[in-house]
Amino acid sequence: MADAAPGTIRTDESLQPVIIAALRTPICRANGQLKHLRAPDLLAPVIRSLVESVGEDPAGVDDVIIGNAVGGGGNVARFAALQAGLPISVPGLTVDRQCGSGLDAVAMASRLVAAGGDPLYIAGGVESISTAPARANRDDDGGLDFYSRATFVPMEYGDPDMGVAAENVARECGVSRERQDGYALRSHQRAVEAAQDGRFVGEMVALGDEGTVVACDDGPRPSLRAPMMARFPAAFVPGGTVTAGNSCFDADGASAVVVTSLKRARAMGAEDGLLVLGCDTTGVHPELLGVGAAYAAERLLAGHGVAPDDIDLIEFNEAFAAQTIACLDHVGIGPERANLDGGALALGHAYGASGAVLVTRLLAQARRRFLESKESSLGLAMISIAGGMGTAALMRYSTL
Predict the structure, then answer these.
(1) Contact indicator for 349, 9 with CB cutoff of 8 Å
(2) Which of 53, 62, 227, 300 has the fewest Cβ atoms within 10 angstroms?
(3) What is the pLDDT of residues 102-156, one digit of tens each?
(4) Where are the alpha helices (DSSP H) in the chain?
(5) Three-class SS of residue 159?
(6) Rounded distance, CA 394 to CA 277, Å?
(7) Which tens digits make up the pLDDT trace of 277-332?
């Protein structure tokens, strides 16, 4: 079991949630290598591989809880569960908290475990931006008014596009263009190095058929250099600091985890996992939506008596370098400590899947750290959310 504090671990093993397996697909640019795969096609292989990896009877899965932001509805969790070969007795639930959907699905499953009964859940997220349906509102005369994104809040609160909101955060929090470019470049460099070292292999489910297999992320750019970053023009606001170079790109992908109680995990013979200590979600002003993760993490850490310096591994969804730096500064975490293998600036942002990708990355890094140093890890996952929200989750790696 984990050592003592910081962070509270439940003494009742039936009520302590633990993540014992986590996998993801390659994360690939929207309208790229995965453009022919719909959301269930991305997710089903992950579910199937997860169930096989823990040696569980598929009928023993209590529910499949999946985040999704821009899909066509119809409960993708249920569809993908059946496509993965789970029996019809296993239900499915689809969660929509936009960018936070995948992490909130994991949080929901963890809270259900903490309610008792020793259940087992598959939880995570999926997004196929490439195949997302065209969306439209109906005019009074019945005509269709197509739109590119949903309205997230009533207009009196302001509903800026993501890039404009990132500029708002950069200006409000004093995050310079130089810091943004430097952070984004480091994300690419770290992701390239991690891929070359094979650090992503164990967490990846390859996708493909008929001889065409996609087995790696396609976003990290080995050729990116500081002079190139400096040449990108402002992308959203004239004279601004947020550019295509220090912003993420839209991506397709899926990620999911196995969440159960510590008691059931031990009965299953699981060797290690991430003990879920707590999760928190909060709201902020929609004009500064990118800082939501900071306020959720701040409240979560305070509630568990954890100081920023206590945290060993931080995974933040890097939608924009500006908001990533602002959030980490607010919490008191040096930006260089986050996303040791790179983040969404290099790998891409698959909306509903991204929060679950954070957890998958935490487990992989914690396992590697334990093998190298025999040290446990306290991990923090953070994601800011459209409409002015943020979710954070605190986890401790432990042998079981």
Answers:
(1) no
(2) 227
(3) 999 999 999 999 999 999 999 999 999 999 999 999 998 889 999 888 899 999 9
(4) 39-53, 76-83, 101-114, 162-173, 177-196, 226-231, 262-268, 292-303, 321-331, 344-347, 351-373
(5) coil
(6) 5
(7) 999 999 999 999 999 999 999 999 999 999 999 999 999 999 999 999 999 999 99
**C-beta separation of 292 from 388 below 8 A:** yes
Q: Among 28, 99, 173, 279, which one carries the catalytic annotation?
A: 99
In this structure, the number of other CB atoms found within 10 A of the CB of residue 372 comes to 8
User: Does the annotation mark 285 as catalytic?
Assistant: no
For the chain, how long is the longest CA-to-CA vector?
A: 67
What's the rounded Cα separation, in Å, for the pair 363 and 379? 9
- Residue 174 in tokens: 């004093």
Residue 304 known to be catalytic:
no
CA–centroid distance for 365 within its chain: 15
Both tokens assigned to 286: 């929609």
Cis amide leading into 220 (omega within 30):
no
10 Å Cβ neighbour count for 228?
13
Helical segments of 241-320, H only? 262-268, 292-303
Compute CA 363 distance to the chain's CA centroid, rounded to the nearest angstrom: 12
Report H helices in 204-338: 226-231, 262-268, 292-303, 321-331
8 Å CB contact between 367 and 397: yes
Q: Are 218 and 33 in contact (CB under 8 A)?
A: yes
